[in-house]
């Protein structure tokens, strides 16, 4: 079939909206009509050529919601008409990682996914006869896309697509980092670095679990109002203090119980670790750093009890946890609507990247 898609033909070039060819689902795969997709900073990072796994040409996008329109042979867990969220972190429930119960990072199809291919080693997308790479196993910047059934979460039908799509990455990543990765307890104090589409979800997760002090840190002063809107109690602009770590340690009475990096900046990651309380503070790295960047700190920071941890997709087990997060939204436990600051048709998708780089959006969503 033909489908409209925004194609990343080259790094650092705007996406081009073209009609691409899409092969139907093979065994164990499903064809999904994408109804809406968010634009996450990770899409921008890949388009900017900063991802060591970045491939071109490719169809980016990994924060979508849609409807199953066809299933391949052997598919049992979803059916035509089901509303689903594509998962860049699948959940096969059979691999060593899934069975370990220690991680959400299902490894069953990660190797082919990282090469822009379906699990059988081929691409379903092509343009003028040339294969186009899938992205993060999702490619939600296409009106139709194909995924393995282990990489789709079935969600309730009354959830609006233009909000539920955000659960496909940002909401789950932020709220999940609090609930699943850090397991923040009521009364804890926390510092969140970077108040964008991820950081604000960390803040609302912290509020939901009953954190006490919730400090937000951002270079953009406009983010103070945004943070307070979701439960932030204190705001720090690093440009306005001489030593941000010392300032945060003093503000939190000796260091935070939990800190979260939602910037992807490795200097900030170090600050986040060192702003933790001696003896027990845990710093969660969520931000994705540019290819080639490394983190550093004095080992003494770890010797004296601070913990450095990472979180991918909020530690969420995709098929099990994302439908629950959609329920939390529908039940009013978490908010999504105010964070969707801009909505565009696919033709205007490049505007979403411009707004993100200018710090003028929280989340832009493309509605097909
Ligand atoms: P965003 O652009 O919406 O927000 C980033 C925020 O960080 C902005 O408010 C910006 O002003 C702020 N910032 C930038 N540099 C800063 C600095 N030096 N100090 C303080 N604040 C600073 O991006 P996003 O969509 O929220 O994504 C944030 C990061 O999380 C990205 O690196 C993204 O790739 C990553 N991410 C990771 C996962 C995961 O599973 N681990 C999932 C989604 C996104
Ligand atoms: N490909 C990059 C790393 C990118 C990365 O860390 N991605 C996160 C999700 S970001 C969503 O917005 C993730 O889940 N990683 C786990 C995984 O298996 O990719 C690189 O550095 O090579
Ligand atoms: Zn993302």
UniProtKB/TrEMBL annotation:
Q: What is its EC number?
A: 1.1.1.284
Can you state which reaction this protein catalyses? Answer: S-(hydroxymethyl)glutathione + NADP(+) = S-formylglutathione + NADPH + H(+); a secondary alcohol + NAD(+) = a ketone + NADH + H(+); S-nitrosoglutathione + NADH + H(+) = S-(hydroxysulfenamide)glutathione + NAD(+); S-(hydroxymethyl)glutathione + NAD(+) = S-formylglutathione + NADH + H(+)
The organism is: Brevundimonas intermedia
The main enzyme category here is oxidoreductase
Cofactors needed by this protein, per the record, are: Zn(2+)
* Family from the record: Belongs to the zinc-containing alcohol dehydrogenase family. Class-III subfamily.
For the Enoyl reductase (ER) domain, which residue ranges apply? 12-366
Role played: Has high formaldehyde dehydrogenase activity in the presence of glutathione and catalyzes the oxidation of normal alcohols in a reaction that is not GSH-dependent. In addition, hemithiolacetals other than those formed from GSH, including omega-thiol fatty acids, also are substrates. Also acts as a S-nitroso-glutathione reductase by catalyzing the NADH-dependent reduction of S-nitrosoglutathione.
Name used for this protein in its record: S-(hydroxymethyl)glutathione dehydrogenase
Claim: Cytoplasm is one of the keywords in the record: no
Q: Which UniProt keywords apply?
A: Metal-binding, NAD, Oxidoreductase, Zinc
């Amino acid at each position: 079939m033909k489908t409209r898609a925004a194609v990343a033909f080259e790094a650092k070039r705007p996406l081009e909206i073209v009609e691409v060819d899409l092969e139907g689902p093979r065994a164990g795969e499903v064809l999904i009509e994408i109804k809406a997709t968010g634009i996450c900073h990770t899409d921008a990072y890949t388009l900017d050529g900063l991802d060591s796994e970045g491939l071109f040409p490719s169809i980016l996008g990994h924060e979508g919601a849609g409807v199953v329109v066809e299933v391949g042979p052997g598919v049992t867990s979803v059916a035509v008409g089901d509303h689903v969220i594509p998962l860049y972190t699948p959940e096969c429930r059979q691999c060593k990682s899934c069975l370990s119960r220690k991680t959400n990072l299902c490894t069953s199809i990660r190797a082919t996914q990282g090469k822009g291919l379906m699990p059988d080693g081929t691409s379903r997308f092509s343009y003028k006869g040339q294969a186009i790479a899938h992205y993060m196993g999702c490619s939600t910047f296409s009106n139709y896309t194909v995924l393995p059934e282990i990489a789709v979460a079935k969600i309730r039908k009354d959830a609006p697509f233009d909000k539920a799509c955000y659960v496909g990455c940002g909401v789950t990543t932020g709220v999940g980092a609090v609930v699943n990765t850090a397991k923040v307890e009521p009364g804890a104090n926390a510092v969140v670095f970077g108040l964008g589409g991820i950081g604000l979800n960390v803040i609302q997760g912290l509020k939901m679990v009953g954190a006490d002090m919730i400090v937000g840190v951002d270079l953009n002063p406009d983010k103070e109002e945004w943070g307070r809107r979701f439960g932030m109690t204190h705001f720090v602009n690093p440009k306005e203090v001489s030593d941000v770590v010392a300032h945060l340690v003093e503000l939190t009475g000796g260091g935070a119980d939990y800190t979260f990096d939602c910037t992807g900046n490795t200097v900030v990651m170090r600050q986040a670790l060192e702003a933790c309380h001696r003896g027990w503070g845990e710093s969660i790295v969520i931000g994705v750093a540019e290819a080639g960047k490394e983190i550093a700190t004095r080992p003494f920071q770890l010797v004296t009890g601070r913990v450095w941890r990472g979180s991918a997709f909020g530690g969420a087990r995709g098929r099990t946890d994302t439908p629950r997060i959609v329920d939390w939204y529908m039940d009013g436990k978490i908010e999504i609507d105010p964070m969707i600051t801009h909505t565009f048709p696919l033709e205007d998708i490049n505007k979403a990247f411009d707004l993100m780089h200018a710090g003028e959006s929280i989340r832009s969503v493309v509605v097909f």
